[in-house]
Amino acid sequence: MSRHQAYRNYDYENDLDEYDGEEAYGEEEEELSPEDKAQMEAGTIQVREALGPQASKVTTAQIQEALWHYFYDIDKSVAYLVTKHIASPAPKAAKSAPVQKNKGKVSQKRSFLHQCPMVYLAWRSRPWSRSLQVHARMKEMRWHTPQVAPRTYQSSKHFSFAAFFNDMPWGNIPKHREATFIAPLYPRGGLLGGAGTPGKPSKLQQLALARKKKAEEQKAGNTDQDVQGTTTQMSRLSVGQDLGANEARNPPSIRGSSSPDPTPSSRKPGLGTLLADRKRKVGDLGQVENSPVTKPSPEPSVKSPNEEPAPEPAIPSAFAQTLVGSAPAAPKHIPRISYQLPYMAFTSSVSDAFSGPSPDDVVLSAQAKASNKKLASSSSKKTGGHDAKIDQASEGVKAMNVDDTPLPKSKNLDVLKEYKNSKAKKSVSFVVVGHVDAGKSTLMGRLLLDLKVVDQRTIEKYRKEAESMGKSSFALAWVLDQRVEERSRGVTIDIATNRFETEATIFTILDAPGHRDFIPNMIAGASQADFAVLVVDASTGAFEAGLKGQTREHALLIRSMGVSRVIVAVNKLDTVDWSQERFDEISQQVSGFLVATNFQLKNVSFVPVSGLRGDNMVHKSKDSAADWYRGGTLIQELENSQPLARALDKPLRMTISEVFKTTQSPLSVAGRVDAGSLQMGDALLIQPSGEKAYVKSLEVDSEPVEWAVAGQSTVIHLTHIDPIHIRVGDIVCDLKRPISCIDTFTIKALAFDVLMPMQVDVHRGRLHAAGKILEMPAILDKVKGTTIKKKPKVVKPGNIARVVVTLSDKMPLEAGQRIVLRSNGETIAAGLLNRVLLRRSQIEHLSFPP
Amino acid sequence: MQLVGAKSSQRLNDVSEGSVTLLPVEPEDMWHANNLISPEDVIKAHAVRKVTTESKTGSTHSERVHTDLTIRVTSTFFDTAASQLHVTGTVIVENSFVNIGQFHTLDLELSRPFTMWKKNGWDSVATETLNESLKQDKEGTVAAVVMQEGIANICLITEYRTILKQRVESTIPKKRAASSDQSSGMRRFFDKTLTTLMRSIDFGTPRPLLLASPGFVAGDFKKYISEEGTRKADKTMMAMAKDATVVHSSSGHLHSLNEILKSAEVLATMKDMKFSKETRYMDELFARLRKDDGRAWYGVSTVVKAVNEGAVGRGGGVLMVNNSLFRSLDLATRKKYVALVDRVREDGGEARILSSDHESGQRLDALGGIAAILTYPMLGLDDDEDEDEGDGQNGAIKEDLII
């Protein structure tokens, strides 16, 4: 189905049609674009509707061909189909009668349509006009000549240019942009050669035309008579007569009620029939009945030929006049000037023609209603005329080729309310800490396996791979240790997050590395946790080593990060044959130092487990040697733990723990919302870069959501920001109440080691930077908080002191945050940031009085 | 630095009154010059000056003239990264282009001699600095990369200072299910670090390279260098990888150099270098401070008190002063410190002037720039807290202002 075929239907003579551009144009259009397809489908449906019972007589292909040919002009297509496929083979009367009865406008349209061949004939009979084709085309392109009202200009003497282009589907032109095509009445012609005067066609051409006319008439003869009658009648009308007559007879319905109507009374019958027609088609349309009356129809489908607007053509532009000669045309135009006003009004009414729902939409919505489809009236109103406008606008935008994605829309939800109303499971995160090789990752791997988060096959696969590397016992740990390095070295390097659900709770696991070199990562994990699982290796010698090593430091760190609840998993108890003595001994020692590090015993519980074998994890141990243990399993202990209170109403703060690319967005960040809430469409500020970003979408626990609140592990898909502005450890914060970047501050710190003015690493969650202790203004009393000693030279371990810290670079920090100071690979102090300071040098630079 | 001029070169001990003509030959010499030149000194050096002349008709004409200028120094500015020294002062010897009292900033250049007079003669500290600067047996500088995941500090450790050449930062995706992202991020980071390293430090002649990091980053980086060298058939890289020493550090921040310089691998190769001694002294000081045994003190007033008591003397007394204290202070203060140093030396203790551009100097800087290890414990030195004048760090806070 190509355009060329369409031309063949009209029996173009190749030698006559020498306009190459047309060819190229046609070829461009050959592929159906997605919009075209959609239009085609919609058109097919509409045509079928219009055809009613006749629809079965035509194939979809035929309809689509017709639509393509008429460029989705439903009425024309219908008319074409009726004449071509329905009316012609069948007995005329039988077919045309119902058509006329049911769809008066269809038949009317048919009559309109069938004058087209005549137009071509008229045109062909005037070879000089070919030279004008180019001019006409130029106009077409510039002013988007409408495809309407061809009839009015038709005469044997002056052919209609407009009609010629009428069924040329090049102009997918928004109606409101259409101008009236102005036919120069006495074109001079000859610009591009040919006869200087409107000369006669050559004999050959005349012969060819005569033949064509015959063929055309034969075709037309098949159609019903009234069509032919109208056609001939119409073709006889002169331009002048036609204008006047037509105007008087059928004022254009396209004039809205707002436009001044010169003949209001004459409009009524036309509209009446129109309404009646639609009523029949639609059924109950009580509430929308008015709309076609008040709102002019922009859609060709509701225009009957009789209602076709006959807008008063404007005076040709200076350019056109120069091209085709204004002198002879001028006198002819003079009387028309009097019609200028209605024409103007007409255009203005067109411009607001889309303010209401289009009749088609009215029809559609009514149909939808009838078929009990849920279609909100508001949406139908919106998608009415506006739709067309939006389409045009979007087309315009497309044409402009502006590459700017729109900002994500915010729903402006009251997130806190939504959160209160939502009945989601409580979400809790816990960090797994302990000395290196205590079996933290394996324990969690076992937990995930037993909870069926990971299937046995995956574990088997890992086991095979691990065996090939000679460390088969690491298979379970590989569930969490996913990095190549971690697997090859058998040590966790970075925090691994994973989640599982029980009936009441969604748990987020933060598997921390135990190795002392990766304590920064462990701090990052601990800062996101509500409580902790301290894994202790019970095997002989290992526990003691751990107690000297990271077991103690981790306990200190989690305490100073604000974690108060600890579940001590005494791991590898199977290696000591589930010895109760060993368990008790370990419990005693661990609770001893936990109390020393300010944990309350009621918040500490001990579970003997075997991570490798899975005893007392999800299920009770089946080993008879472990019968002495009466307490709950690890999972029960986990469920007994409550999340910390969330700072929901504080301004948004989220530390970025991961930055990555996804299919959804080129830039996604993950982390736990520390405070506040956010929702889709929010504008955020990334500190310390100070760049603005927008929330494209959100995920909480791998589920797309519309909002997120403090405590939830959230993935934010961001837009409108360059990835170079975001690093791990940055803070996502509220645009209105942002966190500021500072470099000097006071912390109230508990010293774990000797503090003196020295260089330290400053850690806050994922964030860490080089800094130094500037001075220690005071040692404070542990209970009362009063100053014991001013300006000590050194602060001894165990003391609480005010410490002034300065950073080499500014970091986003604010009062109330937990800071850890480390030096030479050891944690030396931890505490709360309680004051932001300015250095004197900075104060001097400030212009305002301090 | 070379001493020029036959007269003075032979009798360096007699420079106390006279002038010294020095020829800087390498960037390090500029740093020495910066330590040597203090305000009120007189410098004579080659200068380029724009001279504007006005003709009788009032038209002006300016040209750049090369001339020798003699100035009395008011301030110096040392550009660490470029190793350039700018000396500002007033002209004291008139010539056809410049009048007395006009200001000029001399840009001391390599291979151009300058002459300097000390206004107040050459004190012990100045002579020591001069001696140091004239040392010919330069030991090879060491290139070091202190790194962790995503951060690499590329620096050059010379005898007297640590120069941070470049800091490389790279975002490395954290652990997700798709771990390939992570390793490719790591490769990108290594690539960036290696190219920066090659660009900022000349490896034309083999020099030791230290790679330090927590965890396995440094080891992996070394492997990466040798792999890249093999892949590109680059001899320099392969040699680099061969000479590289992997050292453990607790973080990738520059101050971890402390640990690196202490490590056995480094000490084995560079134990004679000035900084390694300084690092040892600083460690001792910190250890004593930690013990709080009354034998280690820091801060100007306490140290002055201790020195005056004669506690920093024979048998383990060490006074450590940062050279930044000598550089930009007014004469009276400088004299005070010089007297302190002399006193300790008289008492038989050791006085060390630490380079503030080294890590040990940075640590001392944090303590106020001066510290001492006493021969016997003294307690309660810090009881009266009226000082705060000297250590520009401690007074630098205004606590009332909160933002």
Automatic annotation (TrEMBL), chain A:
- Which SUPFAM superfamilies does the entry mention? EF-Tu/eEF-1alpha/eIF2-gamma C-terminal domain, P-loop containing nucleoside triphosphate hydrolases, Translation proteins
Keyword annotations of the record: Cytoplasm, Elongation factor, GTP-binding, Hydrolase, Nucleotide-binding, Protein biosynthesis, Translation regulation
The biased composition feature labelled Polar residues covers 221-238, 255-266
> Spans of biased composition, class Low complexity?
198-209, 372-382
What subcellular locations does the record give?
Answer: Cytoplasm
The protein's organism comes out as: Apiospora phragmitis
User: Region Disordered: which residues?
Assistant: 1-38, 193-314, 372-404
The protein depicted here goes by the name Tr-type G domain-containing protein
The UniProt record lists the keyword Electron transport = no
Specify where it is mainly localized.
cytoplasm
What family name appears in the similarity comment? Belongs to the TRAFAC class translation factor GTPase superfamily. Classic translation factor GTPase family. EF-Tu/EF-1A subfamily.
Q: Which Pfam families match?
A: GTP_EFTU, GTP_EFTU_D3, HBS1_N
Quick one: signal sequence residues? none
Spell out the reaction equation it catalyses: GTP + H2O = GDP + phosphate + H(+)
Q: Where is the Tr-type G domain?
A: 425-648
TrEMBL record, chain B:
Q: Where is this region: Disordered?
A: 383-403
Cofactor(s) the protein requires to work: a divalent metal cation
Alphabetical UniProt keywords: Cytoplasm, Metal-binding
Spans through the membrane:
none
The eRF1/Pelota-like N-terminal domain covers 10-135
Q: Does the keyword Lipoprotein apply?
A: no
Main location as per UniProt: cytoplasm
Query: According to its UniProt record, where is this protein located?
Result: Cytoplasm
SUPFAM superfamilies linked: Dom34/Pelota N-terminal domain-like, L30e-like, Translational machinery components
**Source species, domain of life:** Eukaryota
Keyword Cytoplasm included in the entry's annotation: yes
The cross-references to NCBIfam families, in alphabetical order and at most eight, read:
pelota (TIGR00111)
Q: Tell me which family the UniProt entry assigns to this protein.
A: Belongs to the eukaryotic release factor 1 family. Pelota subfamily.
Q: Give the function comment from the record.
A: Component of the Dom34-Hbs1 complex, a complex that recognizes stalled ribosomes and triggers the No-Go Decay (NGD) pathway. In the Dom34-Hbs1 complex, dom34 recognizes ribosomes stalled at the 3' end of an mRNA and engages stalled ribosomes by destabilizing mRNA in the mRNA channel. Following ribosome-binding, the Dom34-Hbs1 complex promotes the disassembly of stalled ribosomes, followed by degradation of damaged mRNAs as part of the NGD pathway.
Q: What is this protein called?
A: Protein DOM34 homolog
